[in-house]
Design goal:
nine-stranded mixed β-sheet, Peptidase_M20 (chains A, B), homodimer, 11 helices, 411 residues, alpha+beta, four-stranded antiparallel β-sheet
Chain lengths: 411, 411
């Protein structure tokens, strides 16, 4: 993570001004209809969480057709292929550029793409299908311009970025898959805006906490412990916690349910609880506070009312965990990516978010999440859209290409 | 409600020992197969809450066939008919004996009666269909024995006793129907055990309380008010309330729900809250305490967190209200009914429950709920059953007949 030796602005300026880069961008432009066609093809293959396989297989074939080597699907369902560098010749370490295959939309969602002027609309089209097609366009552009990189580049279409997937694809890539321990830098291409550089990975931990008790008739069994009273005390105590504003740390009691009828003391009630922090340490601290509060709430309920029919207990099930992390502003990947944004006429903006880059960030591996093009909106909504106006989109796409080439070292 | 002039034990002893009463009981016995057939016929006509009409119409025809006068269905759906007395000749006031038409079971429940030895099993068969058939058996028995009563008797099959019905049938009978202000004593026949005399009507009030707020992203909008925090404070404060043990007063936070996703501060959450008391005054006091706690919980949440996106509010919707009441142990109806239980060889047991008799009790009209026969169980369950062994059942049935005749004054 040492700062690069050469002046990064100069390095990137030289790269962007090179005839090869101009040829590559010209190819992005010349090939643009194909990129749009790929976006549509991939968007119209549904890829709900945990059901990305069909789209993954299609993308695998596309990676093969683009001449990458070692094209494969790993055990988690990620698909990937290598564009070997001149220095490491496919032996690694690898610079990864990834886009996620999954969408938030359940099976049965109509994913037919509609066109309205310069807008394409369909669930998942911007988040993150456009990026999948953009990665392919990069391969074609580099090939057309005869660009070789020093380092090996691994192109990845990964599973499990969205909510319930809990970053399982990238987690596998770094912790278990064939590239474990062999990745030196990581880009996730996710979102639209080419100015946004996510270098802070907001960590999160999510629980479903179920409080259980003996239950009974509301009148006949009055006086026995009630799991809803224990849950209420827990929420009340949690909402007295004041987490730090910096690093930003938050929580939310978000979803609740339980009980069977108004005239019954419930057997079970639950709440879902979300915690996030820019700091792994603060997140861990909040997590400990939560567990302490849950313990105390249950003990307090068992002390306050009769346990003759049984006690109240709780079970806290982790339903999501995204490690916090950050890539320093001074890291080579950060410096070069900011320089690429600037060199192409944009104003870089550092962002905090929870993305696939959280995983490498939490492992201390240089990682950023960057935008795939130009404009888009309504992510996670049925009327999700992207703007495909050619000139600004190709310009936006060129940012990622410049950052990738700068980090992988254009030869 | 003055005590009767004559010694009630003597009066009832004389009644039970009379040849006419013996003839009537002999008719209950001789006619028993018909009573069982009526139980089966009525049980197999589904009568979910608010959908009692088909069964009500069938019962109306049965009341007509039994020679009652002024047989009618009132505006609420209760069906009824008069057996005029010798003194009042149908002009009233009336002694009412009622059984409820409704069951707790939803539409589509299989209500086919199965027989296992001396047991008949079907949803609703004991609660309260057997009592409907028992009322008809009483008419036949009185007719067979030539028994006239001094007072008019109104036989009623009423709607809306179970949970969501909230006693709407009997409420209408006393507050709006054609017999409003004309009922001097009320029996509800509900339950099996001939020893049980419900003379205390547990009152209840039930709320669905919805807490609403602006909602927002769990991370982005952290710091704004959360309706779940307000609800938790309300439940916590409610569970610090210690209601009196005598008169027994209870509460229960029973059902909860709300929220859409773990990463969203919820817009709406709700809880259902049940309150009961043997005392109308204590119930009203608890109700006031609840409202105070809800007000305070919402105010406290709006003070504790930002209301920049909106405030938290609550709406408390009454989803059930059964007035508390009691019939004094010294009331004529109580004294005579206890004497009838004793005269027939049982040991009377005074009970508190929430039944159709709550309504007249709350109005100061002498009222009891009594059993319809012998054994039964699993009320409100799909395997509900009654025991129809003839001898003990006929004996159990004779208790209600004796009580009714004692109160209506056998001529």
């Amino acid at each position: 993570m040492a700062a690069p030796k050469a002046d990064p602005a100069k390095t990137v300026g030289k790269l962007v001004a090179s005839p090869a880069f101009k040829t590559a961008v010209a190819k992005l432009d010349a090939d643009y209809d194909r990129t749009v066609a790929d976006i549509i093809t991939l968007t119209e293959i549904p890829a709900p969480p945990f059901k990305e396989e069909k789209r993954a297989k299609a993308y695998l074939e596309m990676l093969k057709a683009h001449g990458l080597t070692n094209v494969e699907m790993d055990a988690e369902g990620n698909v990937m292929g290598v564009r070997p560098g001149t220095a490491t010749k496919g032996a690694g370490p690898f610079v990864v550029i990834a886009a996620h295959l999954d969408t938030v939309f359940p099976e049965g969602t109509d994913v037919k793409v509609r066109r309205e002027g310069a807008k394409l609309m369909a669930p998942g089209i911007g988040d993150d299908t456009r990026a999948l097609a953009t990665l392919l366009a990069y391969v074609r552009a580099m090939d057309a311009a005869g660009i070789k990189t020093k380092k090996d580049i691994l192109f990845v279409g990964n599973v499990g970025e969205e909510g319930p997937g809990d970053l399982r694809g990238v987690r596998h890539l770094f912790n278990k898959g064939p590239y474990k321990g062999r990745i030196s830098a990581f880009f996730s291409m996710d979102g639209a805006n080419p100015e946004h550089i996510v270098d802070q990975g907001t960590g999160s931990k999510r629980y479903r906490v179920t409080f259980s008790g003996p239950g009974g008739h509301s009148y006949g069994a009055f006086g026995i412990v009630n799991p809803m009273a224990a849950m209420a005390k827990a929420v009340t105590d949690l909402y007295a916690v004041e987490p730090p504003k910096k690093p930003k740390t938050t929580y939310s009691a978000s979803v609740t349910g339980g009980g069977t009828s108004v005239n019954s003391i419930p057997h079970d009630v639950f709440m879902e609880f979300d915690m996030r922090s820019e700091s792994a340490a603060e997140l861990a601290k909040l997590d400990q506070t939560l567990i302490g509060i849950l313990d105390k709430a249950v003990a307090s309920e068992n002390a306050a009312r009769s346990t003759r029919a049984g006690v109240v207990t709780y079970q806290a099930k982790v339903i999501g965990e995204r490690p916090a992390g950050a890539t320093p502003e001074t890291a080579e990947i950060s410096v070069l990516t900011q320089a690429a944004v600037t060199a192409l006429g944009y104003k870089p903006s550092r962002e905090a978010s929870s993305t696939d880059a959280n995983i490498p960030m939490s492992l201390g591996i240089p990682a950023l999440t960057i935008g795939a093009g130009f404009l888009g909106g309504r992510a996670h909504a049925l009327d999700e859209w992207i703007d495909i106006e050619k000139a600004p989109t190709v310009k936006g796409m060129s940012v990622g290409l410049a950052a990738l080439l700068a980090v992988a070292g254009a030869d």
